[in-house]
Design a protein that fits this description.
Elements: E1 18-26, H1 38-52, E2 58-60, E3 65-68, H2 78-88, E4 94-97, H3 100-103, H4 107-119, E5 123-126, E6 131-132, H5 136-169, E7 182-185, E8 192-195, H6 197-213, H7 216-225, E9 233-234, E10 240-241, H8 248-255, E11 263-266, E12 269-272, H9 281-294, E13 314-316, E14 321-328, E15 335-340, H10 341-346, E16 356-357, H11 358-373, H12 376-387, H13 392-402, H14 404-410, H15 413-423, E17 424-430, E18 435-440, H16 445-456
Helix pairs in contact: 6-7, 6-9, 6-13, 12-13, 12-16, 13-14
């Protein structure tokens, strides 16, 4: 009896094709310019694994998903974003990686990715760790491995932070964007800050202008007039940032930066740095003292929560006492007033002075201040004082003399309060005839200017 010959059963033509996408990642850009780099090695292993599963219908997706120079600590990676978009579009059935931490080092982030995979019927495979998320054992192994990957990342982070702290305590520069006045010397093993002489001279001039004028507004104006600008940075990729004209906030960051006196900071502490200072300690401290003095309206020694323009300036002529800023109502329906402090303390019967609407009286005083700043004698006197070296107050007032409307509109409420107190000695309100009298600190400036011109002649 002849036995039937055994033959191999033909492959099923209805086997489902599994479209496999390979994802690779490397934390740094180091070595990516080589002919065969880490990303290539990861891809080679993943493609070999996919070929070994060809009998299961696995096929390689031709699109490459490579993230070179991106951390696994977050999901903000261009290739990963593209991969997720293709998964949602139904173009991928399986994601293959060399190791789990190539996809993510964060257990929370990876859980989000797994949710996306499951929602679209996509499985996940790690080549070197031999598991597949379609199986319960594979999911358990995955969670264990991710926990260790996150632990390793946290340990590495702690070591890096400790190393940076030790370097900063020794005064070493540990990276980041250099500030105006310094460049980074990368020719040495440990990069360090070195002076950029042209920029350093600009920084010294900024400190000198502020000490001379005592005004952020005037200092900013002069810095812009001289063409000074913020630090211009060109990245390795050729992208440019910075190089913008100074504004008050960017100029303020220059004036308070202790790097310029040769120090390095770490978590609020400052240590002597290896880099050369641009300004001496005496100059830097003088600037800080002046900044603190000029900013006292926002400090603890002068509380003015609502930026009342005439607080400690408006006075009751009948009682010869200040008029206090008060308000009624809540939130958007809050109304502001000025009322006599004596009447508040001793009762309304002691003072006939009525309560004044704050907005109206403040506008009247601003109109008087505008008129005052336009007087030729005042302009000449302030400019003559600046030419002789002047006082910081002269510089702040000079900013308004140049163009009152433009300058006043750009001021913060706290700065408007400061300039009012700088220019005005007091404002008297007389309930008898409902009149106000604005007494400026420099009413004698015109006389002083005339006498100065006669003496010069």
């Amino acid at each position: 009896m002849i036995k039937p010959r055994k033959t191999r059963a033909p492959e099923r033509s209805d086997r489902k094709v599994v479209r496999c996408a390979v994802y690779t990642r490397k934390s740094t850009e180091e070595g990516l310019d080589q002919d065969f780099n880490s990303l290539d090695a990861q891809r080679e292993s993943a493609e070999a694994y996919i070929r070994s599963q060809a009998h299961e219908g696995w096929r390689l997706v031709t699109t490459r998903y490579d993230d070179g120079g991106f951390s696994g600590g977050n999901l903000d990676r261009p290739a990963l974003v593209a991969l997720v978009e293709d998964i949602k579009a139904g173009k991928v059935d399986c994601v293959v990686v060399y190791k789990v931490d190539r996809l993510s080092r964060s257990l929370t982030d990876f859980s989000k990715l797994v949710d996306v995979f499951e929602a679209h019927g996509v499985s996940f495979v790690s080549v070197t760790q031999q598991f597949n998320t379609t199986h319960s054992m594979g999911r358990l192994t995955l969670n264990i491995l991710l926990s260790f990957a996150q632990f390793e990342r946290e340990i590495i982070g702690e070591r890096i932070r400790d190393k940076l702290a030790a370097h900063k305590r020794k005064g070493k520069w540990t990276g980041g964007r250099p500030v105006l006045g310094y460049d980074v010397d990368r020719s040495v093993r440990s990069p360090k800050l070195v002076l950029n002489r042209g920029e350093a001279e600009q920084v010294r001039e900024i400190f000198a202008i502020y000490l001379r004028t005592g005004s952020l507004i005037e200092c900013t104006r002069q810095a812009v007039e001289r063409g000074f600008a913020t630090k211009r940075i060109v990245t390795r990729a050729g992208r440019t940032s910075g190089g913008d004209p100074f504004c008050r906030s960017t100029l303020y960051t220059v004036l308070v930066n202790r790097i310029y006196r040769g120090e390095i900071s770490h978590k609020g502490e400052w240590f002597p740095g290896e880099h050369a200072p641009i300004v001496d300690g005496e100059t830097f401290d003088a600037v800080q003292d002046l900044l603190q003095q000029n900013g006292r309206l926002g400090g603890n020694d002068f509380r003015n929560r609502y930026n009342a323009l005439l607080k400690q300036v408006l006075r009751c002529k009948h009682c010869d006492s200040v008029m206090t800023h008060v308000f009624q109502g809540k939130d958007a329906r809050k109304y502001r007033y000025y009322t006599c402090a004596s009447a508040l303390r001793l009762g309304r019967k002691t003072c006939p002075q009525p309560t004044l609407p704050a907005l109206e009286i403040e506008q009247l005083v601003v109109d008087e201040l505008r008129r005052y700043c336009k007087q030729p004698d005042v302009r000449r006197a302030v400019r003559a004082s600046l030419a002789r070296g002047g006082q910081p107050s002269d510089g702040r007032l000079a900013a308004l003399l140049g163009d009152f409307e433009a300058v006043w509109a750009t001021l913060e409420p706290k700065e408007q309060v400061e300039l009012v107190r700088l220019a005005i000695s007091h404002v008297d309100f007389d309930s008898g005839d409902s009149s106000i009298e604005v007494v400026f600190r420099g009413e004698d400036l015109g006389t002083a200017a005339s006498q100065g011109e006669e003496a010069a002649a």
